[in-house]
Amino acid sequence: MIAVYPGSFDPITMGHVDIIHRISVKFKTVHVLVAESTDKVYMFTPEERVSFLEQSLSDLNNIKFHLTSGLTVDFADELKADVIVRGIRAVSDFEYEMVMANMNKNLAPKLETMIIFANPKFNFVSSRLVKEIASHNRDLKGLIPDCVLSAFQKKFAK
Amino acid sequence: MIAVYPGSFDPITMGHVDIIHRISVKFKTVHVLVAESTDKVYMFTPEERVSFLEQSLSDLNNIKFHLTSGLTVDFADELKADVIVRGIRAVSDFEYEMVMANMNKNLAPKLETMIIFANPKFNFVSSRLVKEIASHNRDLKGLIPDCVLSAFQKKFAK
Amino acid sequence: MIAVYPGSFDPITMGHVDIIHRISVKFKTVHVLVAESTDKVYMFTPEERVSFLEQSLSDLNNIKFHLTSGLTVDFADELKADVIVRGIRAVSDFEYEMVMANMNKNLAPKLETMIIFANPKFNFVSSRLVKEIASHNRDLKGLIPDCVLSAFQKKFAK
Amino acid sequence: MIAVYPGSFDPITMGHVDIIHRISVKFKTVHVLVAESTDKVYMFTPEERVSFLEQSLSDLNNIKFHLTSGLTVDFADELKADVIVRGIRAVSDFEYEMVMANMNKNLAPKLETMIIFANPKFNFVSSRLVKEIASHNRDLKGLIPDCVLSAFQKKFAK
Amino acid sequence: MIAVYPGSFDPITMGHVDIIHRISVKFKTVHVLVAESTDKVYMFTPEERVSFLEQSLSDLNNIKFHLTSGLTVDFADELKADVIVRGIRAVSDFEYEMVMANMNKNLAPKLETMIIFANPKFNFVSSRLVKEIASHNRDLKGLIPDCVLSAFQKKFAK
Amino acid sequence: MIAVYPGSFDPITMGHVDIIHRISVKFKTVHVLVAESTDKVYMFTPEERVSFLEQSLSDLNNIKFHLTSGLTVDFADELKADVIVRGIRAVSDFEYEMVMANMNKNLAPKLETMIIFANPKFNFVSSRLVKEIASHNRDLKGLIPDCVLSAFQKKFAK
Questions:
Q1: Who among B71, B95, B100 is closest to F138 (CB)?
Q2: Shortest Cα distance from A47 to chain B (angstroms)?
Q3: Residue C158 confidence (pLDDT) above 70
Q4: Which of B127, C32, E47, E102 is 20 to 30 A off residue E116, Cα-Cα?
Q5: Which fold has domain D2-157?
Q6: In this predicted model, what pLDDT tens digit does every residue of C79-132 receive, in sequence order?
Q7: What residues does each domain of chain C span?
Q8: How far is the CA of C54 from the CAs of C17, C46, C47, C61, C119, in angstroms?
Q9: A66 a catalytic residue
């Protein structure tokens, strides 16, 4: 089975690393889709976000990274993917994912969305919160890959 | 990939039928595990529940049915399954599934739980509610397979 | 418009009283359906439950009380009701009500379910909790009608 | 009974059409209030939004459309409305509606808010998501009225 | 025990007043931290927000007010606080608070977050909603302190 | 401050151990109330449940254990407690706790309920689930104290 795993990854956290490791074992190929939306403001450039993914997951060899600005279902179709995989950390994520999965099923009836649960120990680790804490120069070791740690230190060094 | 899809199926509904059809396309084999717990009171015998499954899914040929009274993780191990698949209809199901998935991950670290969302049009169709309505002799055509419809009619005929 | 307002009312609380007052102003007639299920264990007999309702709502003259053991939709049909009204106190009630409303819509397409929110000050007042507290001989004045207060005192007098 | 049904309708979806049809049967008059807030950015002008509503609901003759920038309770008062009707698709909508209903009850004690549940088959159809998908030139037939379909095609034609 | 109670207080509502009264009885000192974030747009200046707090809570003498732009955990450390106290009004607040509490535990393992529930009668009273209603010149007596009432009247006088 | 921490503890899990450790540091005394309800069926006797608590928490010296069959608020009053402490693992616990806290506030206005969040790594560890898994002879090391591990092994040895 071929999976796409879409996200913003602004930046990748250890929660993402854990999920990608777990699904890379199950699927033949995992295509990580890195969103590049003109509506959103990112902290890191698309190239930086992909580079953090590549550095953090260099031990896996069935993972491919793609920048994408279109709909996930269209890209999944091009890549001949069988499923969209999404990780869920919390109940509040759940309804958004259900709505997206149902809409995507409507747009691409043969593509299925499969959800896996984030590791409980990374339950509180979101890209958004990690950026906020990092901007106050606090150490996030263990919650984000080392390459992101360095990038934060450089960015927020006084 | 080999999947186990555990449940009580007391009785199977069109919600289950829809999910099993969708996953049978994706996985090499789907092992449907029919729970036989001594703690629970079922309306239908294990043999009836399996028979309804067989009749409702006779068009699929990569599905196997098993009666089980043990832990899903143990049976999954025996069957060399890669994933446990669960369908979710509602937010209130979600937390139960998250707890079970995390516990199962703890018991069997290599097995993953994957969630797929029920078809919205069967969102209100649970085995429990279907039994309650059927006991009042109301027609449930379209919500349960025909064999279950007949079984209900026989059981609740006045 | 004619409404049915179904429930167990075991016993009626000030939360129910508040909701019935509010809907009695809006609807031509409100039929209060008092469930009499053989599967459930009630603290008060159907007659006691109806009597508490009558005493607590004697100031309203467009309310009728009915004991019912069938489906709400069937009784609503007999009474030529336009809507089922349900009160919600909490998010956890919400999904149950959504499932029931969707199932009822499937059984009786012309009948609508309308939800109104319980008064926040009775947010924590459920029949179940009120019985539990009363069994410990605590005063529940203001949370239940006086007739229920007396019934509890008699039942749990040492 | 007279109802107000407030919303942004940017644009109207088949979920809204379904709800307005269902309530138009129950209420003497349904006043659809189309919000015109200076704080919000809309994709369609107030006039376009009203026009889509008129075209999509031309078969109903007890519906009136109003542009409003004030509080719903004030407009409801002017229109001598008995209830505010709101549709709910998901648990996450529910708490917002409960807060608004309680606040509105505080501002206008005689006005009640009544909730009806969206048709499950339109469960994933929100104005926001529909706009996002349409901007990628995907077909949304069946999820939005034809007049909105045309407007999207014109807007996003390459 | 020393507590910090962080918030935006833009402006303080009777919900906040109630919570601060309740915790001031329990803790030796309550440090109210008034957030001054450069990312957020406030209706009232930091000085106004602190002044409303001081006027509304002048009857308590173990409360101190601080303007802060840093992380709560850092300020709590400086103030030798034992716990962060947060009030919760709704389920949707809950997950945000759980995530923040877990992250803060990670940053400051000895500091605990304790949650208390808002008084149900102020369940629908948020700073955001209060501002929106006030901008339409509606009376909010009983939901906000008198000093805030006057400030709103001045700000929104026609 | 004096706290009561009520529960069934049938049996104590590492989730409870973690919470009791964290609150024992903050409060002068923590009274652990072990429920002995005639309505509930427990796996372990009250004496066993208290004994597991004592063995698992023998390193703490400001903790006292009490068997109780009454209301928590009554016992808290006798013990001159300032707060009831409860741990929450999930959103679904949250509403139950809010209802109980509001009811307890009604019964004992000076007593506050304070909630702390369970350690995410014990998020899936409930007494109920632990008993179910143990009955299938699976190892739960790390999720329950050693004394409970032994008790399970004795009870479910084949």
A1: B71
A2: 31
A3: no
A4: E47
A5: Rossmann fold (3.40.50)
A6: 999 999 999 998 878 889 999 999 999 999 999 999 999 999 999 999 999 999
A7: 2-157
A8: 11, 12, 10, 11, 21
A9: no
